């Protein structure tokens, strides 16, 4: 039995940030190559600190869904997962025993050699009549001066494809470092050019920044060649490599190549199994209230609905029948605003989910990530909490500023954010004697300050929260 965990960056502001990771997780589930596929995020839930608690099996492979090596793959993710590793990840990855689970952490999918094949596939999609004699390829990366590994993989792919002879010319350009894409005509001589963004997902850069920077008018743009009369160059703009279906195959290959990968797999993780068995037991004796929802067992199925919709006729509610349907239903509140923290008291009403007993745990996971596992641990006095001071000390990069936050600054932010949350702040020495396993609907523990709170405390220390508040009035 094997669990696959896909790690994305996520966002506190943009609900679409997680779309690519969700899409690949769904695709890999449909292939059935892993016994479960779970998503985890830096800035969404389940967080990197929670995600390993949510997997069912003791054999876990973690793949960073990033296009290149860098700060997040080498520092943030290993730190937050508790891998005890910092710095470049070996080609075969890193293997650790964490909480009774064998955890294998790989390189990001974007550095796999097969990504060159994905680049070629994108090029042929954009320009089906591609001819190696008169077509140049541009591999476009983001680039950054903060980490040299960010551009290394772009250069490696460009060189690999240059040697393949599949294009008349192959160039590497970047948005934020030299050589910049804005100067492409000074270097590219070919009549036809295919521009392939080496980006993980479709977004602001691929849809707006890149077209605006170089003057693209659509999928095909004709440019006048500088210093000539009547001579032109035609550029074909492809979709980003990170959204190609072949990425699923790259992910599977990464997992198979991971250090110590086992054909036998692992076993059911006992604590996880006990937690969900306890939920099923509670459902067998009657409805179960968790946070803002009510769960009810009925004829071999499980219904989930907002507790405030109890008593409403089914015909008046939108019905979803898959875990993915629940996921998409709960990401926004009734006003259409994004919910980066799932236990905020703003769950939209007007829907119900009817799920098989096999599917309902995943649906509940999408609704309230890690809540079952952490509440069960708290119920048995086994949940380990991380005080704010320890969370602050662990922060690096732009978030290291939170180490300077005063208790009053932390409490000012927490009163606003945590005041609208169902959880009890154990990390701030609040007490929780009973959980929903005892029949207390709001009995949900918070073992550690969430990344939204960390980000807002940083803004408070920087003096930017007050500016944002003034700008909103």
Report what the structure shows.
This protein is an alpha/beta fold and 473 residues long. The chain has four domains: 121 residues, Rossmann fold (3-Layer(aba) Sandwich); 130 residues, 3-Layer(aba) Sandwich (Rossmann fold), CATH 3.40.50.1400; 100 residues, Gyrase A, domain 2 (2-Layer Sandwich), CATH 3.30.1360; 77 residues, Alpha-Beta Plaits (2-Layer Sandwich), CATH 3.30.70. Helix content is 32%, strand content 19%. The strands form four sheets. Strands 2-1-3-5-4 form a five-stranded mixed sheet, with helices on both faces. Helix 7 packs across helix 10, helix 8 runs parallel beside helix 9 and helix 12 packs across helix 13. InterPro entries: CbiX-like, DR2241_Fer4, DR2241_middle, Sirohydro_Cobaltochel/CbiX.
SSE topology sketch:
Layout: E1 3-8, H1 19-31, E2 36-41, E3 59-64, H2 71-81, E4 94-98, E5 101-105, H3 115-126, E6 135-141, H4 149-164, E7 169-174, E8 192-197, H5 204-214, E9 220-224, E10 232-237, H6 247-257, H7 270-284, E11 288-290, E12 293-298, E13 301-306, E14 318-320, H8 323-330, E15 351-356, H9 360-367, H10 371-379, H11 388-394, H12 407-417, E16 423-425, E17 444-446, H13 451-462, H14 464-471
Parallel strand pairs: 1-2, 1-3, 3-5, 6-7, 6-8, 8-10, 14-15, 16-17
Antiparallel strand pairs: 4-5, 9-10, 11-12, 12-13, 13-15
Helix pairs in contact: 7-10, 8-9, 12-13
